TrEMBL record:
<feature type="domain" description="Ig-like">
    <location>
        <begin position="33"/>
        <end position="125"/>
    </location>
</feature>
<dbReference type="InterPro" id="IPR013162">
    <property type="entry name" value="CD80_C2-set"/>
</dbReference>
<keyword id="KW-1133">Transmembrane helix</keyword>
<dbReference type="InterPro" id="IPR036179">
    <property type="entry name" value="Ig-like_dom_sf"/>
</dbReference>
<keyword id="KW-1015">Disulfide bond</keyword>
<feature type="domain" description="Ig-like">
    <location>
        <begin position="130"/>
        <end position="222"/>
    </location>
</feature>
<dbReference type="Pfam" id="PF07686">
    <property type="entry name" value="V-set"/>
</dbReference>
<feature type="signal peptide">
    <location>
        <begin position="1"/>
        <end position="18"/>
    </location>
</feature>
<keyword id="KW-0732">Signal</keyword>
<dbReference type="InterPro" id="IPR013783">
    <property type="entry name" value="Ig-like_fold"/>
</dbReference>
<dbReference type="InterPro" id="IPR003599">
    <property type="entry name" value="Ig_sub"/>
</dbReference>
<dbReference type="Pfam" id="PF08205">
    <property type="entry name" value="C2-set_2"/>
</dbReference>
<keyword id="KW-0812">Transmembrane</keyword>
<protein>
    <submittedName>
        <fullName>Cell adhesion molecule 2</fullName>
    </submittedName>
</protein>
<dbReference type="InterPro" id="IPR007110">
    <property type="entry name" value="Ig-like_dom"/>
</dbReference>
<keyword id="KW-0472">Membrane</keyword>
<dbReference type="InterPro" id="IPR013106">
    <property type="entry name" value="Ig_V-set"/>
</dbReference>
Length: 238
């Protein structure tokens, strides 16, 4: 057989039998305080496997060397590894905080003589839900046509920030202004409503004002996380 042809066949055989990363599973989002399971499934074929390394935003936080069969954990901001539930194909993160959001990469390394390396990465977002419903302030007990409905709606602290929407008698109305406040990575939104009441607003025996706060995952996902909370007040027409 021609030498070049023989070399090509050998290279193709090596490629077919090379280390393969089957899939990586990183949850698109998790809630603050919850655990998260990261999976890295591989097929070493005929390769001799050296170990697996996990990175968060390019920093090593977990390494599993097969000959040691003992995971090594490194300090990285926001990452807390549960070693008792981690091995060469999975890593369990516990008590996720906001700093745990980021890009996670799994790298699988083969031993010599091939020293093949395969890797894949995915993003995870940590979401902090508000502890309370949105709060409406400034309401009066009685309204008449021509009065100005002047209300504020304040969302509970969350990450990412809640989006607020106003409804008067089940009809959405635009806010007059909106402010965003941040403390320790948590956001609170204050939306102000200034609406001059018309006879149509007072057609029934009550005025229903509702504020809706929506917290959703910041990144576009096929199955996004959405949490909706509402609060409402009632005013009595004169």
């Amino acid at each position: 057989m021609d030498f070049m042809l023989l070399l090509l066949v050998m290279l193709l055989r090596q490629e077919v039998a090379a280390l393969k990363l089957l899939h990586i599973n990183v949850p698109a989002y998790t809630l603050r305080g919850r655990s998260a399971l990261l999976e890295c499934r591989y097929d070493r074929e005929r390769d001799r496997l050296y170990g697996i390394t996990w990175y968060k935003d390019h920093e090593v936080f977990y390494k599993y060397v097969l000959r040691d069969k003992n995971p090594h954990v490194y300090d990285v901001s926001g990452v807390k590894v549960d070693k008792s539930h981690s091995d060469d194909q999975k890593v369990t993160l516990q008590d996720a905080n906001l700093h745990a959001s980021g890009v996670y990469k799994c790298e699988v390394n083969g031993e010599g003589p091939s020293f093949n390396t395969v890797s894949a990465e995915a993003r995870m977002e940590v979401i902090a839900l508000p502890q309370e419903r949105p709060m409406i302030t400034g309401e009066e007990k009685v309204y008449a046509s021509g009065d100005v409905l002047a209300l504020n709606c304040t969302s509970g602290k969350s990450h990412p920030a809640a989006k607020l929407r106003w409804f008067v008698n089940d009809q959405q109305v635009k806010p007059d202004s909106e402010q965003l406040f941040e403390q320790h990575g948590l956001y609170s939104t204050i939306s102000s409503l200034l609406l001059e009441l018309e006879p149509g607003h007072l057609a029934s025996d009550k005025i229903n004002v509702r504020c809706e706060a929506t917290v959703e995952s910041a990144h576009k996902l096929d199955n996004p996380f959405v949490d909706i909370r509402t609060t409402e007040v009632f005013g009595k027409p004169t």
